[in-house]
UniProtKB/TrEMBL annotation, chain A:
The keyword Disulfide bond does not apply. GO terms for molecular function: ATP binding; ATP hydrolysis activity. Keywords: ATP-binding, Nucleotide-binding, Transport. Residues 10-246 form the ABC transporter domain. It holds the Pfam family ABC_tran. This is Phospholipid/cholesterol/gamma-HCH transport system ATP-binding protein. The keyword Nucleotide-binding applies.
Length: 259, 386
């Protein structure tokens, strides 16, 4: 039987990102396979979150395009884009919970609008998703009433609300205690492995980067392009690029300094 | 020959800074307690010590004589090292320095200064400034046009039943810009009615025509003051609130979150607010008209005109056309106030200052627009002879 080669879940072709005339990153080329946990890493301010915004269609590329299953997302008409976007779950760096709604309502709203589930079924799903992130009992709290870490977890639950095909996480474990962040890592792995969902995460957290990401792209702020793509554990030991090794080893040894 | 720092005499100020020439360049000797509480030499004066050194010369720092230090010392040394490096001097701040000082200096000097920003902010000539300002104005105009277009499309979706927003949002906004606005609208309207009655009566008494105060108050309220005052109150109260709500949702990325879930922010945020205000402003205007007339009646009654006479005079003067003018205008005002509030909110930048600016701009835009529209209506009604 002939194997039909499937297009990758996400493909980035010659992507150049810019704010006005200021180029952030140029000539990015990579693809992300279905079911993969893919990390975007690099020094702060190098454009990791901006790349994420390009992948989910909030920013338009200056050049190049983003494809989903071989179909151009960048050039798709509005309605088609909205349709593709419905397959995304996004966790923003700040959480970005809707502040006028309770945690339960935050998770429930996408379900109410996009599914025909009964109210009781939605309530059950919401309780389950909030329990997954350790927020059982906080259903009726408003975002303003809880801590930053809890907001992040609630936003995590909301990102998973529709069981999306691709989950985008911007700094999922920043501001969390080590135990909670470990639990979220485990949750990410389970979602990806047992439910075959694709996960794209931006992170600084070396521990989670090394333990859960199957592949990672390293954005280099000095050359303004991608330095390398690969398994972060291998890159840590054997990358040809000193800046990548240094990043992944937390610059262990004498304090790294160019002067 | 190694150069040592000159020993310090007891009489000198506790903080001391001395330059000594060496074979390869210069040595800066620093001693004494360098703290923020201590007076220290001016940085510019210190830089003077670098004068006359050619590029490639060597500058050494000696801080061994420092008895206590905090940021005041390190910041000065940091500035000196930078200045020296700019002039192409070779700086050695480690060999003769206290370990802590040299490490802090190293950390501060570790990442070179980002020059790209300074370059971006450099002086631009007259023409590029005019050009940029023009483009900015043009973009602002496009923004407004885009917003109007979106509003039309959004209403289209609403009529086809395809606009997604939370019905609850609509009702809370209706409550916020309806019943909750009653106290302030009552107060302002009754006072406006009373003021008109006072002023009008003083003038009309001279002709013995004080009963016509009723006509004056009634016409002024239903044609102009009722709708304009209500609109101004609501632009300060509700229009500003719209801008602040939507603006802070933008800052908090809540609007982005709507987009990624496939919700249209316009339908979700702007539509319910516009609907609520367009629905409530005419009602508030009618209410304001009545309260204003009651205010006029109160003043007239206190100054001797029987309430019933005043009432009959008012009813005889008003007809449906007169009364509908203010209400028609209030629909236009509602669109402008909600539109300005939401537009400024959606345009909001990414900081809390931007939210404040969005709020201010919303109020300024809507009050200006209210007055301009009101005068256009005045011209129109005059032409139509209403």
């Amino acid at each position: 039987m002939e194997m039909i080669e499937e297009a990758p879940q996400i493909e980035v072709r010659n992507l150049t990102m810019a704010y006005g005339s200021k180029v952030i990153m140029k000539d990015l080329n990579f693809s992300i396979e279905k079911g993969e946990i893919f990390a975007i890493m690099g020094g702060s301010g190098c454009g990791k979150s901006t790349l994420l915004r390009h992948l989910i269609g909030l920013n338009e590329p200056a050049r190049g395009e983003v494809l989903y299953h071989g179909e151009s997302f960048t050039r798709a008409p509005q309605d088609r884009r909205a349709q593709i976007m419905r397959g995304f779950g996004v966790l923003y760096q700040s959480g970005a919970l809707w502040s006028a709604l309770t945690l339960a309502e935050n998770v429930a709203m996408p379900l109410e609008e996009y599914t025909d589930l009964r109210a009781s079924e939605i309530a059950e799903l919401v309780r389950y998703k909030l329990a997954l992130v350790g927020l059982s009992g906080f259903e009726s709290y408003y975002p303003a009433d809880i801590s930053g870490g809890m907001k992040k977890r609630a936003a995590f639950a909301r990102a998973m609300a529709l069981d999306p095909e691709v989950l985008f996480f911007d700094e999922p474990s920043a501001g969390l205690d080590p135990i909670t962040s470990r639990r979220l890592d485990e949750l990410i792995v389970q979602i990806s492995e047992s439910m075959d969902r694709t996960v794209v995460l931006v992170t600084h957290e070396l521990a989670s980067l090394l333990s859960i990401a199957k592949r990672a792209i390293f954005l280099d702020v000095t050359t303004k392009t991608q330095a390398v793509i690969g398994d972060p554990r291998e890159l840590k030991e054997r990358s040809d690029l000193p800046q990548v090794r240094e990043f992944l080893n937390r610059g262990d040894g004498p304090v790294p300094c160019s002067s | 020959m190694a150069h040592d720092c000159p020993s310090r005499s007891v009489k000198e100020s506790p903080v001391s800074l001395k330059w000594t020439d060496t074979e390869e360049g210069r040595l800066l000797c620093i001693s004494g307690p360098w703290t923020l509480q201590q007076a220290r030499p001016d940085s510019e004066e210190v830089f003077g010590g670098l004068a006359g050194l050619a590029a490639g010369a060597r500058l050494e720092l000696d801080t061994q004589g420092v008895s206590a230090y905090d940021a005041s010392l390190v910041s000065l040394l940091f500035a000196v090292v930078r200045k020296a490096r700019e002039r192409g001097l070779e700086v050695d701040y480690r060999a003769r320095s206290q370990e802590g000082v040299s490490r802090l200096l190293q950390l501060a000097l570790c990442v070179p200064e980002d020059k790209s920003r300074a370059e971006r902010e450099r002086e631009r000539d007259f023409f590029s400034r005019v050009g940029e300002a023009t483009i900015e104005k043009y973009d602002a105009f496009l923004d407004v046009m885009h917003f109007v277009g979106e509003a039309v499309l959004s209403v289209g979706r609403l009529l086809r039943g395809r606009a997604i927003f939370r019905k609850q949002d609509l009702w809370t906004t209706v409550q916020g810009c309806g019943s909750e606005a009653l106290p302030i609208v009552s107060l302002i309207s009754v006072l406006i009615g009373m003021i008109f009655a006072f002023v009008g009566k003083a003038q009309l008494d001279a002709f013995g025509a004080s009963i016509y105060v009723a006509d004056l108050v009634a016409i002024a309220m239903v044609r102009e003051m009722g709708c304009v005052m209500t609109a101004i109150i609501m632009s300060g109260r509700t229009g500003a609130a719209f801008a602040a709500q939507i603006g802070s949702m933008k800052v908090n990325q809540e609007v982005d979150a709507l987009v990624t879930f496939g919700f249209k922010p316009f339908d979700f945020l702007v539509l319910p607010r516009m609907l609520a205000l367009i629905l409530m402003l005419p009602l508030l205007t009618i209410y304001s008209n009545i309260v204003g007339i009651v205010g006029g009646l109160l003043v007239s009654w206190l100054s001797g005109i029987p309430a019933l006479v005043y009432y009959h005079q008012t009813v005889a003067r008003l007809d449906l056309t007169q009364m509908s003018l203010g209400v028609i205008k209030s629909v236009a005002f509602g669109i402008v106030i909600a539109g300005a509030g939401c537009l400024r909110g959606m345009q909001c930048g990414n900081s809390s200052t931007a939210v404040g600016m969005a709020t201010t701009r919303a109020v300024v835009t809507s009050i200006t627009a209210i007055i301009v529209i009101d005068s256009l209506f005045a011209v129109l009604f005059t032409v139509l002879d209403i």
